[in-house]
Amino acid sequence: MKILVCIKQVPDMESKFKVNSENTWYDSGDLAWRMNEYDEYAVEQAVQLKEQQGDADLTVLCIGPDRVKETMKKALAMGCDRGAHLQDDESHKREPLEIASIIAEYARDKEFDVVFTGMQSQDRGSGQVGVLLGEILDMSCVTTVIEFGFEAGEIKVKRELEGGVKAKVKTTTPAVLTCQLGLNTPRYPTLPNIMKAKKKELLSSPAADLLKVDSRQNTQTMYFPEKKGVGLVLEGEIADLTDELIKILKEKTGVLA
Amino acid sequence: MKALLIAEYRDGKLLGGNNELMAFAEKIGAESTMFLVGNESALPAYSGKLYLADGNECGEYNPSVHKDLILKVVEKEQPELVVFSHSSYGWDLAPRVAYAMQAAQVSEVVDVVDSMPVVPVCNAKLRRNVKVTTAKAVYTLQAGAFSAAEEPTGTPEVEKLNKDSEGKIVFEGYEEAEKGGVDLSKSEVIVSAGRGVGKPENIEMVAALAEALKGDYGASRPVVDAEWVEHNRQVGTTGQTVSPKLYVACGVSGAIQHLAGMKKSEFVVAINTDKDAPIGEVADVLVVADLKQFVPALTEKVKSL
Ligand SMILES: Cc1cc2nc3c(=O)[nH]c(=O)nc-3n(C[C@H](O)[C@H](O)[C@H](O)COP(=O)(O)OP(=O)(O)OC[C@H]3O[C@@H](n4cnc5c(N)ncnc54)[C@H](O)[C@@H]3O)c2cc1C
Q1: Which of A235-244, B8-17, B206-215 has the lowest mean pLDDT?
Q2: From CA B50, how far away is CA B175, in angstroms rounded?
Q3: Do residues B94 and B103 lie in contact, with contact meaning Cβ atoms separated by under 8 Å?
Q4: What is the pLDDT of residues B279-294, one digit of tens each?
Q5: In this prediction, does ipTM exceed 0.90?
Q6: Is residue A223 one of the residues assigned to a domain?
Q7: What residues of chain A lie within 8 A of the CB of B131, using their CB?
Q8: CA closest to B67 among chain A residues
Q9: Which domains does chain B have, with CATH numbers?
Q10: What separation in Å is there between the alpha carbon of B127 and the centre of ligand 1?
Q11: CA of B193 to the centre of ligand 1 (A)
């Protein structure tokens, strides 16, 4: 079995963001980078499937500048066999169709049986790449997967719907699955596995060679939303803060009455 | 401008986002038609043309069956815009329809400025205006971003559609959310633990504050996913919708899916080390502090009142 997992490197969401000089994206300086949270579940599920199959081969793919290789090393340390880094300094500008098309061209002749992606990225949040990849390669795609099973060539999953309801669906390989938070418990790479990962194949090639579509949208401007919050912001010493808050709760709510 | 609105129906019921699609069409001044895989006995209140495929014949959601039906309507109506809710139905189906139409797809639209859709970035800390370069586009709308001043009225003029394709994905049934345990929808005070609590032992301090305030404790999704707290205490779109007198969010960033579950609270206090956390948008009071120090200190003072 051949498995592909597609990951993205994103900034820590608690970062102090700045808009870049062109006003089209956030500035990439001074940010801490990590694996997109949804993709951690995708990597874990891919590794679990590989372990279940025994003789599977698992590739992790990431599009982006050289720094994304750090995040790919984590995926290798979690258990992926090889890394395909599609080098692209402009990846932040690419819309989901371009990203999906690059992945599709990479995957086209490689006969992957199962492809995992996160259901969305934490920064752009479009949630389209996995679905578009499925459409381009004519593979079935199930999104928002919260439970995954594979048996006798059949993929049985649960999709998460609103209000905690789940839909049980099945399909056959080849298929793309987009992974939702809570699908599994992503493992922490152990030190021996981090050391082993250093020796694994991690090849870089230009993403531009695989880009076969024109973009259909771009970012006109990026900006901070106007603060609508009329709320009070309290800062200072803990002891003062607790007193202030208690005073407010007494005045504004009935709960301490 | 012509817009095709994709209404939603599941397990015998119309879903709530449909009114927001109409409010959106009205806001941008579009002429609209609607599409629904549903049932004639449960039609949306809508005064316009509705293309209806029978839910019994089509079965529950199947991506390629629904896509093919929508494409038939697109062919006939030639809309410039196809509009979905940003829901488990919309985000699954919209990219498929857009790909077939060779149209741009813009996800989770929260506003329209100068004819450009506006979407959130980085957990709503930033926004961007999107320039679509194709003649046609497909949007999904963030839940709650476009709401109608009044409930829509009217009876649609129905034109029936028949399905003529089968999907590769087989639907095998629904699994309902687990029931039982605490019912947060009735709580008057809720203190919620977010990922900012850091480790499972710290749930204790959040629960202690809830007890001191004579309320219940809740949690955000990562805390539930990590199994530090049981699922029936999760607040948000995939958990409980709550409306207490007081909601205290401890180490919760305020993602849209969390806000959707608690924004009807009467008074919101957020405790967060990040002054820019989006929870600040809905908080009446944002306390910028480390919850590990602040929460126990507050509990002590409340107890001594
Ligand atoms: C389809 C879908 C459905 C979803 N449904 C839900 C849902 O029902 N409910 C839900 O909650 N989420 C849901 N989510 C997930 C949601 O998008 C967010 O990922 C989640 O709400 C984040 O939880 P959090 O705020 O606890 O964690 P984070 O976003 O990681 O935020 C942690 C916060 O804690 C603060 N913090 C850190 N340390 C401290 C400290 N010592 N003291 C004080 N503050 C601190 C940080 O500044 C940060 O703001 C859903 C997502 C999707 C895609």
Answers
A1: B8-17
A2: 30
A3: no
A4: 998 999 999 999 999 9
A5: yes
A6: no
A7: 217-220
A8: A135
A9: 2-161 (3.40.50.620), 184-304 (3.40.50.1220)
A10: 19
A11: 9
